[in-house]
Amino acid sequence: MEANGSIYSRLLKGKKLVMILLSVGVLSIITGFSVYETTKTELTLSLDGEEIEVKSHETTVKDVLEQENVDINEKHDYVQPGLDTEVKNGMKIIWKPAKQVTLNIDGEQEKIWTTESTVEELLSKQRIIVDEYSEIKPALTEKIKDNMNIIVKNALEISLVVGGEEEKVMTTSKTVAELLEEQEIELNKLDRVEPSEDEQLTNETVVNVIRVEKKTDVVEEEIDYKTTTKKDNSLEKGKEKVIQAGEKGKLKKEFEVTLENGKEVKRTLQKEEKIKDSKDRIVAVGTKQVVKNVSRSKPAPSGGKTIFMKSTAYTADCSGCSGVTATGINLKKNPNTKVIAVDPNVIPLGTKVHVDGYGYAIAGDTGGAIRGNKIDVFFSSKSKAYAWGSKTVKVKILN
Q1: What is the DSSP string of 99-114?
Q2: Can you tell me the distance from the alpha carbon of 388 to that of 375, in angstroms, rounded to the nearest whole number?
Q3: Roughly how many angstroms between the first and final C-alpha of the chain, as a whole number?
Q4: Spatial CB neighbours of 70, under 8 Å, sequence gap ≥ 6
Q5: Which CATH number applies to 156-210: 3.40.50, 3.10.20, 2.40.128, 3.30.70?
Q6: Which is nearest to 74 in space by CA: 97, 56, 94, 91?
Q7: What is the pLDDT of residue 156?
Q8: Range in 28-32, 302-306, 321-325, 371-375 with the lowest mean pLDDT
Q9: Least confident stretch, 177-181, 233-237, 270-274, 389-393
Q10: Where are the CATH 2.40.40.10 domain residues in the chain?
Q11: Torsion angle, CA of 154/157/158/162, rounded to 10 degrees?
Q12: Calpha distance 363→345 (Å, rounded)
Protein backbone atom coordinates (compact mmCIF):
# COMPACT_ATOMS: atom_id res chain seq x y z
CA MET A 1 0.00 0.00 0.00
CA GLU A 2 2.88 2.29 0.83
CA ALA A 3 4.36 1.66 -2.56
CA ASN A 4 1.11 2.54 -4.31
CA GLY A 5 0.66 5.71 -2.28
CA SER A 6 4.16 6.82 -3.07
CA ILE A 7 3.53 6.37 -6.80
CA TYR A 8 0.25 8.31 -6.63
CA SER A 9 1.93 11.10 -4.76
CA ARG A 10 4.65 11.36 -7.38
CA LEU A 11 2.07 11.45 -10.19
CA LEU A 12 0.17 14.20 -8.50
CA LYS A 13 3.26 16.26 -8.09
CA GLY A 14 4.08 15.73 -11.81
CA LYS A 15 0.68 16.99 -12.95
CA LYS A 16 1.00 20.08 -10.84
CA LEU A 17 4.32 20.83 -12.46
CA VAL A 18 2.88 20.46 -15.98
CA MET A 19 0.02 22.76 -15.14
CA ILE A 20 2.42 25.34 -13.77
CA LEU A 21 4.54 25.11 -16.91
CA LEU A 22 1.49 25.43 -19.15
CA SER A 23 0.25 28.43 -17.22
CA VAL A 24 3.60 30.11 -17.52
CA GLY A 25 3.63 29.42 -21.28
CA VAL A 26 0.14 30.81 -21.84
CA LEU A 27 0.96 33.87 -19.79
CA SER A 28 4.09 34.42 -21.82
CA ILE A 29 2.14 34.16 -25.04
CA ILE A 30 -0.54 36.57 -23.82
CA THR A 31 2.06 38.96 -22.56
CA GLY A 32 4.01 38.72 -25.84
CA PHE A 33 0.86 39.31 -27.94
CA SER A 34 -0.10 42.28 -25.83
CA VAL A 35 3.36 43.70 -26.17
CA TYR A 36 3.27 43.05 -29.98
CA GLU A 37 -0.09 44.72 -30.40
CA THR A 38 0.71 47.70 -28.22
CA THR A 39 3.90 48.37 -30.18
CA LYS A 40 2.05 48.70 -33.56
CA THR A 41 1.81 52.14 -35.24
CA GLU A 42 -1.71 53.52 -35.59
CA LEU A 43 -2.37 54.95 -39.07
CA THR A 44 -5.21 56.44 -41.17
CA LEU A 45 -5.32 55.28 -44.79
CA SER A 46 -7.28 57.11 -47.54
CA LEU A 47 -7.46 54.57 -50.34
CA ASP A 48 -9.04 56.06 -53.48
CA GLY A 49 -11.26 58.28 -51.31
CA GLU A 50 -12.18 55.63 -48.71
CA GLU A 51 -10.68 56.10 -45.22
CA ILE A 52 -9.78 53.23 -42.88
CA GLU A 53 -7.88 53.00 -39.57
CA VAL A 54 -5.04 50.43 -39.42
CA LYS A 55 -2.23 49.33 -37.08
CA SER A 56 1.07 48.17 -38.49
CA HIS A 57 4.58 47.22 -37.61
CA GLU A 58 5.69 48.18 -41.17
CA THR A 59 8.31 50.90 -41.30
CA THR A 60 7.62 52.66 -44.65
CA VAL A 61 4.56 53.94 -46.46
CA LYS A 62 5.17 51.48 -49.28
CA ASP A 63 5.27 48.53 -46.85
CA VAL A 64 2.02 49.63 -45.23
CA LEU A 65 0.22 49.87 -48.57
CA GLU A 66 1.52 46.48 -49.65
CA GLN A 67 0.36 45.10 -46.27
CA GLU A 68 -3.15 46.31 -47.27
CA ASN A 69 -2.80 44.62 -50.69
CA VAL A 70 -2.76 47.96 -52.56
CA ASP A 71 -1.50 47.46 -56.15
CA ILE A 72 0.73 50.51 -56.52
CA ASN A 73 1.65 52.03 -59.88
CA GLU A 74 4.76 53.78 -58.60
CA LYS A 75 5.20 55.87 -61.77
CA HIS A 76 1.70 57.37 -61.97
CA ASP A 77 -0.23 56.83 -58.70
CA TYR A 78 -0.57 59.65 -56.19
CA VAL A 79 0.91 58.71 -52.79
CA GLN A 80 1.23 61.18 -49.94
CA PRO A 81 3.62 61.11 -48.19
CA GLY A 82 6.16 59.42 -50.49
CA LEU A 83 6.55 55.64 -50.59
CA ASP A 84 9.92 55.69 -48.82
CA THR A 85 8.66 57.86 -45.97
CA GLU A 86 9.05 56.29 -42.48
CA VAL A 87 5.69 55.79 -40.83
CA LYS A 88 4.80 57.49 -37.61
CA ASN A 89 2.01 57.06 -35.15
CA GLY A 90 -1.09 59.02 -36.19
CA MET A 91 0.14 59.48 -39.77
CA LYS A 92 -2.40 59.78 -42.65
CA ILE A 93 -1.45 58.07 -45.89
CA ILE A 94 -3.29 59.06 -49.08
CA TRP A 95 -3.31 56.85 -52.17
CA LYS A 96 -5.07 57.73 -55.42
CA PRO A 97 -4.72 55.20 -58.23
CA ALA A 98 -3.87 56.73 -61.63
CA LYS A 99 -6.25 56.12 -64.53
CA GLN A 100 -5.29 56.17 -68.19
CA VAL A 101 -7.50 58.35 -70.37
CA THR A 102 -7.43 59.59 -73.96
CA LEU A 103 -7.50 63.36 -74.49
CA ASN A 104 -8.78 64.59 -77.87
CA ILE A 105 -8.29 68.37 -78.05
CA ASP A 106 -9.46 69.95 -81.34
CA GLY A 107 -8.58 66.74 -83.18
CA GLU A 108 -5.16 66.28 -81.50
CA GLN A 109 -5.17 63.02 -79.53
CA GLU A 110 -2.91 61.71 -76.73
CA LYS A 111 -3.07 59.21 -73.89
CA ILE A 112 -2.22 60.36 -70.36
CA TRP A 113 -2.29 59.10 -66.78
CA THR A 114 -4.20 61.11 -64.21
CA THR A 115 -5.22 60.98 -60.57
CA GLU A 116 -7.74 63.82 -60.87
CA SER A 117 -11.31 63.04 -59.84
CA THR A 118 -13.38 64.83 -62.49
CA VAL A 119 -13.09 65.90 -66.12
CA GLU A 120 -12.97 69.55 -65.03
CA GLU A 121 -10.06 68.89 -62.63
CA LEU A 122 -8.17 67.00 -65.34
CA LEU A 123 -8.57 69.82 -67.93
CA SER A 124 -7.48 72.37 -65.32
CA LYS A 125 -4.45 70.27 -64.39
CA GLN A 126 -3.50 69.95 -68.07
CA ARG A 127 -3.99 73.74 -68.53
CA ILE A 128 -6.55 73.21 -71.26
CA ILE A 129 -8.60 76.41 -71.57
CA VAL A 130 -12.31 76.02 -72.30
CA ASP A 131 -15.11 78.59 -72.40
CA GLU A 132 -18.88 78.76 -72.74
CA TYR A 133 -18.66 77.95 -76.46
CA SER A 134 -16.46 74.85 -76.04
CA GLU A 135 -17.96 71.44 -76.67
CA ILE A 136 -16.85 68.94 -73.99
CA LYS A 137 -17.70 65.23 -73.82
CA PRO A 138 -18.27 63.82 -71.27
CA ALA A 139 -19.46 66.71 -69.09
CA LEU A 140 -17.07 68.58 -66.78
CA THR A 141 -18.69 67.05 -63.69
CA GLU A 142 -18.21 63.44 -64.86
CA LYS A 143 -15.97 61.24 -62.70
CA ILE A 144 -12.74 60.06 -64.33
CA LYS A 145 -12.85 56.41 -65.34
CA ASP A 146 -10.15 54.15 -66.65
CA ASN A 147 -9.83 54.25 -70.47
CA MET A 148 -12.19 57.23 -70.66
CA ASN A 149 -12.18 59.18 -73.95
CA ILE A 150 -12.41 62.95 -73.30
CA ILE A 151 -13.18 65.15 -76.34
CA VAL A 152 -12.81 68.94 -76.31
CA LYS A 153 -13.74 71.11 -79.28
CA ASN A 154 -12.83 74.74 -78.75
CA ALA A 155 -14.93 77.28 -80.63
CA LEU A 156 -13.68 79.24 -83.66
CA GLU A 157 -14.79 82.78 -84.50
CA ILE A 158 -16.02 82.67 -88.10
CA SER A 159 -17.18 85.45 -90.43
CA LEU A 160 -20.51 84.30 -91.84
CA VAL A 161 -22.06 86.24 -94.73
CA VAL A 162 -25.62 85.26 -95.68
CA GLY A 163 -27.32 87.12 -98.51
CA GLY A 164 -24.81 89.96 -98.19
CA GLU A 165 -25.32 90.38 -94.42
CA GLU A 166 -22.17 89.63 -92.35
CA GLU A 167 -21.96 88.52 -88.73
CA LYS A 168 -19.36 86.93 -86.44
CA VAL A 169 -20.32 83.52 -85.01
CA MET A 170 -18.66 81.16 -82.53
CA THR A 171 -18.67 77.54 -83.62
CA THR A 172 -17.17 74.15 -82.83
CA SER A 173 -18.00 72.85 -86.30
CA LYS A 174 -15.16 71.38 -88.34
CA THR A 175 -16.46 72.01 -91.86
CA VAL A 176 -18.54 74.58 -93.69
CA ALA A 177 -21.40 72.07 -93.99
CA GLU A 178 -21.42 71.48 -90.22
CA LEU A 179 -21.45 75.25 -89.60
CA LEU A 180 -24.47 75.75 -91.88
CA GLU A 181 -26.32 72.95 -90.10
CA GLU A 182 -25.39 74.33 -86.68
CA GLN A 183 -26.60 77.83 -87.64
CA GLU A 184 -29.79 76.34 -89.19
CA ILE A 185 -29.09 77.93 -92.56
CA GLU A 186 -31.10 76.27 -95.31
CA LEU A 187 -29.81 76.42 -98.88
CA ASN A 188 -32.19 76.86 -101.76
CA LYS A 189 -31.69 74.93 -104.98
CA LEU A 190 -29.75 77.70 -106.73
CA ASP A 191 -27.84 79.08 -103.73
CA ARG A 192 -24.05 79.03 -103.81
CA VAL A 193 -21.62 78.61 -100.89
CA GLU A 194 -18.02 79.79 -100.84
CA PRO A 195 -15.80 78.03 -99.92
CA SER A 196 -17.17 74.54 -100.65
CA GLU A 197 -19.16 72.74 -97.96
CA ASP A 198 -16.40 70.18 -97.27
CA GLU A 199 -13.82 72.91 -96.58
CA GLN A 200 -12.20 72.75 -93.11
CA LEU A 201 -12.84 75.80 -90.92
CA THR A 202 -10.12 78.03 -89.46
CA ASN A 203 -10.22 81.38 -87.66
CA GLU A 204 -9.48 83.04 -91.03
CA THR A 205 -12.36 81.37 -92.87
CA VAL A 206 -15.07 83.62 -94.34
CA VAL A 207 -18.18 81.61 -95.23
CA ASN A 208 -20.27 83.33 -97.90
CA VAL A 209 -23.79 82.10 -98.63
CA ILE A 210 -24.92 83.69 -101.90
CA ARG A 211 -28.66 83.67 -102.36
CA VAL A 212 -29.39 82.98 -106.03
CA GLU A 213 -32.77 83.30 -107.68
CA LYS A 214 -34.10 83.48 -111.22
CA LYS A 215 -37.14 85.36 -112.39
CA THR A 216 -38.82 86.27 -115.66
CA ASP A 217 -38.87 89.90 -116.80
CA VAL A 218 -41.11 90.98 -119.70
CA VAL A 219 -40.38 94.35 -121.30
CA GLU A 220 -41.75 96.19 -124.31
CA GLU A 221 -39.40 97.98 -126.69
CA GLU A 222 -40.18 100.41 -129.49
CA ILE A 223 -39.39 99.56 -133.10
CA ASP A 224 -38.27 102.69 -134.94
CA TYR A 225 -39.94 103.55 -138.19
CA LYS A 226 -38.25 104.10 -141.55
CA THR A 227 -38.51 107.23 -143.67
CA THR A 228 -39.22 106.75 -147.37
CA THR A 229 -39.50 109.36 -150.11
CA LYS A 230 -41.94 109.55 -152.96
CA LYS A 231 -41.61 111.80 -155.99
CA ASP A 232 -44.44 114.28 -156.40
CA ASN A 233 -44.69 116.30 -159.66
CA SER A 234 -47.40 118.48 -158.16
CA LEU A 235 -44.89 119.79 -155.62
CA GLU A 236 -42.24 122.32 -156.58
CA LYS A 237 -38.79 120.90 -157.05
CA GLY A 238 -36.73 121.28 -153.90
CA LYS A 239 -39.72 121.07 -151.57
CA GLU A 240 -40.83 118.15 -149.44
CA LYS A 241 -44.09 117.32 -147.77
CA VAL A 242 -44.87 114.67 -145.16
CA ILE A 243 -47.80 112.69 -146.45
CA GLN A 244 -47.73 109.99 -143.77
CA ALA A 245 -46.36 110.43 -140.26
CA GLY A 246 -44.15 107.65 -139.01
CA GLU A 247 -45.38 105.44 -136.20
CA LYS A 248 -43.19 103.29 -133.99
CA GLY A 249 -43.97 99.62 -133.51
CA LYS A 250 -43.72 97.53 -130.32
CA LEU A 251 -41.73 94.41 -129.52
CA LYS A 252 -42.30 92.27 -126.41
CA LYS A 253 -39.20 90.56 -125.03
CA GLU A 254 -39.06 87.94 -122.29
CA PHE A 255 -35.82 87.67 -120.31
CA GLU A 256 -34.59 85.21 -117.67
CA VAL A 257 -32.95 87.35 -115.00
CA THR A 258 -30.44 85.89 -112.51
CA LEU A 259 -30.17 87.66 -109.16
CA GLU A 260 -27.45 87.19 -106.54
CA ASN A 261 -28.26 88.62 -103.12
CA GLY A 262 -31.02 90.62 -104.78
CA LYS A 263 -28.79 92.19 -107.46
CA GLU A 264 -29.05 91.38 -111.17
CA VAL A 265 -25.94 89.64 -112.49
CA LYS A 266 -27.21 88.10 -115.73
CA ARG A 267 -30.02 88.65 -118.24
CA THR A 268 -30.77 86.10 -120.98
CA LEU A 269 -33.32 86.63 -123.77
CA GLN A 270 -35.74 83.71 -123.85
CA LYS A 271 -38.17 84.82 -126.56
CA GLU A 272 -39.51 87.90 -128.31
CA GLU A 273 -42.79 88.73 -130.01
CA LYS A 274 -43.79 91.64 -132.24
CA ILE A 275 -47.06 93.05 -130.92
CA LYS A 276 -47.31 96.09 -133.20
CA ASP A 277 -45.73 96.82 -136.60
CA SER A 278 -44.08 100.15 -137.23
CA LYS A 279 -45.47 102.48 -139.93
CA ASP A 280 -43.09 104.18 -142.35
CA ARG A 281 -42.84 107.93 -142.53
CA ILE A 282 -43.54 108.91 -146.16
CA VAL A 283 -42.24 112.19 -147.53
CA ALA A 284 -43.25 113.58 -150.90
CA VAL A 285 -40.34 115.16 -152.79
CA GLY A 286 -41.30 117.81 -155.30
CA THR A 287 -40.21 117.42 -158.93
CA LYS A 288 -42.25 120.25 -160.54
CA GLN A 289 -40.11 122.76 -162.39
CA VAL A 290 -41.11 126.37 -161.64
CA VAL A 291 -40.15 129.24 -163.91
CA LYS A 292 -39.50 132.18 -161.64
CA ASN A 293 -40.22 135.77 -162.65
CA VAL A 294 -36.77 137.29 -162.81
CA SER A 295 -38.13 140.77 -162.22
CA ARG A 296 -39.70 139.73 -158.90
CA SER A 297 -36.93 137.50 -157.49
CA LYS A 298 -33.74 138.51 -155.81
CA PRO A 299 -30.69 137.68 -157.86
CA ALA A 300 -28.09 135.44 -156.28
CA PRO A 301 -25.12 137.46 -155.11
CA SER A 302 -22.18 137.61 -157.40
CA GLY A 303 -18.67 136.84 -156.39
CA GLY A 304 -17.47 134.56 -153.60
CA LYS A 305 -16.83 130.84 -153.47
CA THR A 306 -19.71 128.50 -154.32
CA ILE A 307 -20.11 125.05 -152.76
CA PHE A 308 -22.80 122.49 -153.34
CA MET A 309 -23.69 121.05 -149.98
CA LYS A 310 -26.18 118.59 -148.53
CA SER A 311 -28.67 120.39 -146.31
CA THR A 312 -31.11 119.46 -143.54
CA ALA A 313 -33.18 121.66 -141.24
CA TYR A 314 -33.54 122.10 -137.47
CA THR A 315 -35.43 124.17 -134.89
CA ALA A 316 -34.66 125.52 -131.43
CA ASP A 317 -37.39 123.37 -129.88
CA CYS A 318 -35.74 119.95 -130.22
CA SER A 319 -35.44 117.70 -127.13
CA GLY A 320 -32.36 118.69 -125.14
CA CYS A 321 -31.70 121.84 -127.21
CA SER A 322 -30.83 125.04 -125.30
CA GLY A 323 -31.86 127.32 -128.17
CA VAL A 324 -28.50 129.12 -128.03
CA THR A 325 -26.07 128.65 -130.94
CA ALA A 326 -22.37 127.94 -130.72
CA THR A 327 -21.73 131.67 -131.35
CA GLY A 328 -24.20 132.76 -128.65
CA ILE A 329 -27.29 133.61 -130.76
CA ASN A 330 -30.51 132.97 -128.79
CA LEU A 331 -32.76 131.48 -131.46
CA LYS A 332 -35.78 131.30 -129.17
CA LYS A 333 -35.66 135.05 -128.61
CA ASN A 334 -34.75 135.72 -132.27
CA PRO A 335 -36.85 133.22 -134.23
CA ASN A 336 -36.54 135.10 -137.54
CA THR A 337 -32.75 135.06 -137.59
CA LYS A 338 -31.24 133.25 -140.57
CA VAL A 339 -28.62 130.88 -139.17
CA ILE A 340 -26.98 127.74 -140.50
CA ALA A 341 -24.97 125.11 -138.63
CA VAL A 342 -21.69 124.31 -140.36
CA ASP A 343 -18.47 122.34 -140.07
CA PRO A 344 -16.03 125.12 -139.04
CA ASN A 345 -13.28 123.34 -140.99
CA VAL A 346 -15.28 123.97 -144.19
CA ILE A 347 -17.06 127.26 -143.42
CA PRO A 348 -15.64 129.23 -140.48
CA LEU A 349 -18.10 130.38 -137.82
CA GLY A 350 -19.27 133.99 -138.40
CA THR A 351 -19.08 133.70 -142.19
CA LYS A 352 -21.91 135.32 -144.16
CA VAL A 353 -23.40 133.06 -146.82
CA HIS A 354 -26.22 132.83 -149.31
CA VAL A 355 -28.13 129.54 -149.48
CA ASP A 356 -30.34 128.88 -152.50
CA GLY A 357 -33.96 128.67 -151.40
CA TYR A 358 -33.13 129.98 -147.92
CA GLY A 359 -31.46 133.33 -148.52
CA TYR A 360 -28.78 135.28 -146.72
CA ALA A 361 -27.61 133.75 -143.46
CA ILE A 362 -24.71 133.60 -141.01
CA ALA A 363 -22.68 130.50 -140.17
CA GLY A 364 -23.46 130.74 -136.46
CA ASP A 365 -23.89 127.20 -135.17
CA THR A 366 -22.40 123.69 -135.22
CA GLY A 367 -23.79 120.18 -134.81
CA GLY A 368 -22.55 116.71 -133.95
CA ALA A 369 -23.72 115.33 -137.29
CA ILE A 370 -22.59 118.35 -139.35
CA ARG A 371 -19.31 117.26 -140.91
CA GLY A 372 -17.74 118.14 -144.24
CA ASN A 373 -19.94 119.54 -147.02
CA LYS A 374 -23.10 119.52 -144.96
CA ILE A 375 -25.19 122.30 -143.40
CA ASP A 376 -28.24 122.49 -141.13
CA VAL A 377 -30.54 125.50 -141.75
CA PHE A 378 -32.56 127.01 -138.91
CA PHE A 379 -36.33 127.47 -139.01
CA SER A 380 -38.59 128.88 -136.33
CA SER A 381 -41.11 126.05 -136.63
CA LYS A 382 -41.04 122.31 -137.08
CA SER A 383 -43.44 122.46 -140.03
CA LYS A 384 -41.03 124.67 -141.96
CA ALA A 385 -38.13 122.42 -141.01
CA TYR A 386 -40.03 119.32 -142.21
CA ALA A 387 -40.98 121.14 -145.41
CA TRP A 388 -37.31 121.88 -146.08
CA GLY A 389 -36.46 118.21 -145.69
CA SER A 390 -33.09 116.99 -146.93
CA LYS A 391 -31.62 118.21 -150.22
CA THR A 392 -28.51 119.43 -151.96
CA VAL A 393 -28.23 123.22 -152.23
CA LYS A 394 -25.79 125.77 -153.58
CA VAL A 395 -24.04 127.79 -150.89
CA LYS A 396 -22.16 130.97 -151.77
CA ILE A 397 -19.64 132.25 -149.29
CA LEU A 398 -19.79 136.02 -149.11
CA ASN A 399 -16.88 136.87 -146.83
Answers
A1: EEEEEEETTEEEEEEE
A2: 12
A3: 201
A4: 47, 95
A5: 3.10.20
A6: 97
A7: 87
A8: 28-32
A9: 233-237
A10: 301-397
A11: 110
A12: 12
Count of beta carbons in the 10 Å neighbourhood of residue 246: 16
Contact 161, 195 (CB under 8 A): no
pTM over 0.85: no
- Enter the CATH code of domain 215-285: 2.20.230.10
Evaluate whether 113 touches 76 at the Cβ level (below 8 Å).
Answer: yes
pLDDT one-digit tens code per residue, 82-133:
999 999 998 999 999 999 999 998 888 999 999 998 999 898 988 888 887 8
Quick one: CA dihedral 344, 348, 351, 355, positive or negative? negative
Q: Which residues contact 382 (CB under 8 A, 6 or more apart)?
A: 315, 317
Q: Does domain 99-153 have CATH number 3.10.20.90?
A: yes
CA-only gyration radius of the chain, Å: 59
Candidates 2.130.10.10, 4.10.240.10, 2.40.40.10, 2.40.30.90; correct CATH number of 301-397? 2.40.40.10
Q: For residue 68, give the amino acid letter.
A: E
| pLDDT-wise least confident of 11-25, 89-103, 229-243 | 11-25
